[in-house]
Structure formats: structure tokens, C-alpha cells
Amino acid sequence: MDGILSYIIDALYSLPGILVGLSFHEWGHAYAAYKRGDPTARNLGRMTVNPLAHIDPLGFLSLLILGFGWAKPVPVSTRNFKSPRKDELIVSLAGITVNLILGVAFMIIWIVLICLPWSNEILNTMVQYCYTINFGLAVFNLLPIPPLDGYHVAQCLFMNAKTYKFFGFVEKYSYVILVAVLIINSRTHFLNTIVYWLMMPLMNLASLILSIF
Fold first, then answer.
1. What is the Cα–Cα distance from 19 to 108, expressed in whole angstroms?
2. At what angle do helices 57-66 and 174-188 cross, to 10 degrees?
3. Of residues 52, 30, 32, the one with CA closest to residue 41
4. Which residues contact 6 (CB under 8 A, 6 or more apart)?
5. How do residues 140-157 score in pLDDT, each as one tens digit?
6. pTM (2 decimals)?
7. The CA-based dihedral angle spanning residues 70, 71, 77, 83, taken in that order and rounded to the nearest 10 degrees
8. Segments making up each domain of the chain, as ranges
């Protein structure tokens, strides 16, 4: 019973970070695509931070239960780009960039909150989850597995006649590979370790900046 209660509390703490992280991630893709000349996502109502426009049920549950997940991919028409490969690379990296910016912002907010005399433990924990989840989304989306951003980045950088079959194989078995990665991470926590390595220097930098004021 205590385990179930602990899980419910953990899920409630995670929920704001998940909704913000996924929504802004997909908005980042849509906005970048629009700025590069493709209005497809905007016309379909995806250039928004409304979570209902972006939530993928399976990806949402995976993030809630396993700590890593995804949203519905934003539709992009590369034919609208002036420089398709370059613009697609920018769009693919936009969501990850937004999550990193949010992660740093929430981290700074958390450091400020814990320094306040009227600091609230529940709010502090919720904000802590927000920056951890956003950094987690950034790291997870860098994996070169469809439908994650890292796959599109890899395509933009390495797709050619020699690698075409390899990318086709990865696409064919993408969900099998993705589930395998999630299972391996649940036992080894290798993704969590990468997130930790990412957060520590940023935490030290944020603390240093705040100590000046």
C-alpha cells in the first residue's frame, strides 16, 4: 500500500513537468518549422503549448511510469524548406533546445525557491521534477531511434546511398528497439546517469551566477 501511495505522489509531482516539457518541446518543433517556411504544423493547430494538442497516450504513460517518453510528432513538410536538410536539422534540434532552456530556467527557479525563508517543500519538489524531466526529455530525444528527434538528426547528417538500408532497418524495428532501450534503462539507469552528468555542471553554474546577486 505504501508503494502505491508513493507512486501516486511521485506521479502527481511529475505531472506539471511532463505536461510543460512535452508541450513546449513540440511547440519548439512547430515554431522552428514555421520560421523556416513550413506552416503545416501551425495550420493543423500544433503551434501551441496546449498539452491536448501534443500528448501521445503511450509516450505519456511511458514518461509517467518509466521516466522517459515522447509526444505526438509534429507534422513537417520538408518541401516547404529552402534548404531541406539544413532546415530539417534545425527543426529536429528545436524541441531538444527548448527542453534544455526550460531545464535551466526551472533549475534557477528551484535554487531561488530553496533560498527563500518561506520556502515550500511541495512547490520546491515540483519545480525540481520540472527541471529533471526537461533534461530527461532532451537526453531521451537525442537517441537515434524513430520517432525521436535524434533519428531525424542522424538522417540529416548521415543519410546517403550507403546508409539507406541501415536507416530502413532502424525504422522497421523502431518500436522494438525503443522498448528494448526502455527496459535496459529500467535495469541499468544509463539514461538517468547521462541526465545527472548534464545537470551537475549546469547546477554548479546556476549556483555560481546566483551567488553574485
1. 19
2. 20
3. 30
4. none
5. 999 999 989 999 999 999
6. 0.90
7. -50
8. 2-212
